[in-house]
Batch of 2 targets.
Target 1
Amino acid sequence: MYKFLLFLIFMISLGTMVVWGTHSYFFANQQPLISYGEKINDDDFKDRVVVLLEESVVGSIDDSIYLINVVKAYQDKKISKIVVSGQKKNSGENRVLAIMDYFIARGVLEADLYPDFYSADPYHTCRRLHEVFSISKVLFVTDHFRAQQALFACQYLGKIDVKAWAWPADKNLGSFFDTFTSELGVLADVHLSAPEVYLEDRPVNIFAKLYPY
């Protein structure tokens, strides 16, 4: 029993070192990442398309701090275009469309909203933002860990001038494990697999003027 406990402690310690070391080495120092607690200046919004990661919005859409703050920034005319990035699912609620409905109900014009249904993770999102939507300047709105992953992927691809506006992530053990597995997925996408990305819907000009208004 004593030996087993020592072995268990050793394995837990080793696993914690691997997880924290991987996170710290690749993701922890991603810049520019603006914390929700910091003052965000108009220059941080200037000429940037806000990209909301659908995976960040868990639980009730109506209570999401991300959506509330994006709507406020839109109403204050700090931003003019919003892309909701996620993955279309064959069953259950389509969260991308549900989030877009939330924005429209609060005064965001349909012409200023664009869905991205084919981005399962930050690597797909970054490539599609560049190759499908032809966007060069982005402000991600998401939780802290997903912001770090998006910055890492976009900066590696080198196609987009990217910032992130991030809120604290859930600190429970399940979320920590999910974060680590998603970080491994981003690392694999960037350094190993370079997965195939859906580009059949390109190009989309989100800055085109639509008539009639």
Note: The longest strand covers residues 137-143.
Target 2
Amino acid sequence: MPSSIWTAIEATLAAQLDGDDDQALWEAVLQEVFKDAEALAQCETSNERILAEVGRCSHWLRPHQTRWVDGGGFAWPVGYGGIGYSRSGMPQFDWATFAYWSPVDKKWLPRATRPTRSSRMITFRVAIPSRSLQHEQAAVHTVWRPGPPQHPRKELVQFYGFRRADDGWKQTAYRAFPDEMAYDDLETSSNRVTKRLDPP
């Protein structure tokens, strides 16, 4: 079943993606990444507390020699923001679109702008690489700030690796920091099936 995030932000994406962006990658990324996000968001009961911020990044930190070897290997997906010029730099957006989690409707709903940050807000930030039509792989950076609902004071960074196949983009790698602690508290591990990938 497609994630509601696509419905929430499709119109904005259609206006922002350009001729070098592969919409098929964006659909695949949002489908896979938000399976995990929704598994965590199910625990939240406060309306509009979780904000999804999805954006395109064209200025990843490079060149650098740090590799993420899972799934055939990817460049470490970091940028220049925050602690720049290091493995912990934040990918910066060319542009971003927003949605919030509705615990009543159990889905993502569109939001026109980024709200004024409050001390209780949780942000799920997803950075997708630009120029995806020119490449056969894509490394996606996501981060929960200040942390996911289950551990709101512990930042959770997740990397997702995708490769282009004959039948479309497929997720082939995953890594989380710190590990997968956010999912340990869930009642079922079925939401994590896509992450338990066979080694290459």
Note: The helical segments are 4-16, 23-41.
